[in-house]
Please model this.
Amino acid sequence: MSELVFIDVRDQSGQNQRQVKSHVASGTHRQKRLVAIEQYQKNADRDDEQSASQDLSSEATTSNIDVSGLQQPQDPTQDQYSVEVPSPSLTSVKASSHETHVQILLQQSSNWIQYQYRHFWSVKIRQDPLVYDLNTSIETFRESFYIVSDLLAMGKVNPAFEVLKYTLDSVPDLLRNPHPELLFALLEVASGINMPAAINLQSKVKTHLADMARVIFGMKHPATLLLTTDFESSSRNHTTQLLMACIINTLSMTFGSDAYQTLVHQLGQSQFYMRAGHATVAQETISNVLRGWMEQYGDDAALSRLAMLELSMMRLHACHDDPIPFEAEVTNSLQWIEVISGISGSQPTGILFPESSPASPDLRTKTLARWFLLRKRYTLALHVYNLTKGLPDQRTAPHEFHEPGGLAGLMANIVQDALGDALDLAEDINDIGTAVTQHWLGERVTQP
Model:
């Protein structure tokens, strides 16, 4: 009988066990994600053969939009896809007279996302399944307009226009290298929901962006159509809702229902529902995002904790009785994010930095990050936390503005200077109930 050989398989690397497990989970998720994307594309190819003879009638039935007899624009490089849109019962606003134009937008947006994936994005994703997750240029661009609105609401006019200038300067590069999240960001600009404190300024910004999109993309591109669409006040919420759902559903078909692109857009969608007064739908949507990120990254990942913070703030804003338990939830989520992002060195997408022992961040920097968090400027908050560790923001394109940190770094510096002594006092910023209430009052979507 041969002797038994025992092999010691215990980890002897001396690395932090939580980081080791997170690193292994990240690698597993990358493999699963790539397989999932390829599977979705195979299904899409199979569905094309079955739906080649279909027109927009199925969409018209779902969204109650009559487009019978409408001549659809044909693009030889794009295929036609069926896009599922939500039931209008979620909003009391009825569709307006420009329904036909909106329906074309739904179709063109879906076509563009699918076409871009097949011809450009798929190559990058096969090389690195998380390539778009790690680039926050579009997320920073999206948040910059909210920052402009925040500063204007506080009476900080010069800093607001400084942020706006840098944001508009970044647009040509963003349009020349389209990102999966581009249409969602432009939709918020087009509908005006991202600058609630500056409606007149928003219309001028929209016109300026439309001119750039027209030159770079042409008249028939969905980005141009979005920016030239007149979002009538009587149907703005309804139109925005349909377009958001179209973009998210198409991303789900393209990248997968649990992909970063899909879930991060659902987070933005939940914020829209909350501001529009649909608290129940908003909380259901963010709960779905929370489940997805917890399953993929774990309970202690920054993305999971950000979703928890979002849900806690929604509950706090929606409560009518005792707010103290919900304020405690928000505080707990904030503290977890500060621990994870400021100490452990883990990125929200699971990319790990080597352990280091940076000096403790000063009160101003920590308070600035909290200011961003409580206003739901999550990308900027995580950027500030990276700065407290003395680490570069690995999720920012290195060529962006040829500046350390790119647009996110510029905005963080501008906001820090604009807030000034308020960061030292930090009373209003750290008063959870006051901060959340002010945020929601400032960003509530006006109901017609």
